[in-house]
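Can anyone check this?
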Amino acid sequence: MASAVSFRPKINSFKNTFCIFKEVPLSETENLEQQFKSESGSAYFYTEEGMYRLSNHWGRLANSKWRLLLMNPATESKIKLGFAKWEDFYPDNASEKLYYIEADFENHTANYYHKNGPDYNGTTLLRTTAETRKRLKNIRNILTLTQWAKHYNQDIEVLRKRIVTELINTDKPLETIKREML
């Protein structure tokens, strides 16, 4: 990555944005000058291509949603260095339907993504931030808990996939979907 001692971002990436940073080795900022340090201790390094963020906390930050995609294998340190290109910062607000959900059934995880991201297919159901948060909580409970499945006589993995697929692709309430699966 190119270094830039006095580079300032052309956009306000800190205000009402969604971004997925990719974890990178700490060595990537060795020759860069830190441009900003937040009150919570996160350090920021700007380049012409994007932003590095060194932090021990990710997720909802003030009025932005910044997630970190971990390296594989994961580093043991709680402090992680992430990098995101300027074009990977997307607008965020509470009123627009900006987010869609994807599930990883093999790893029993689910996450949300912005419609302006490169992987959006243009057809998956979009939701507001509040709708996404509520739906994602339901999905994660279905994927990780088992108590809810005690009344069903079906393979729990098959049932999980059916219920989560409905939660992702429809606006039906969870209880309605569960009833339909009986």
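Reply from J.R.: I decoded it. The first strand starts at residue 17 and ends at 23.
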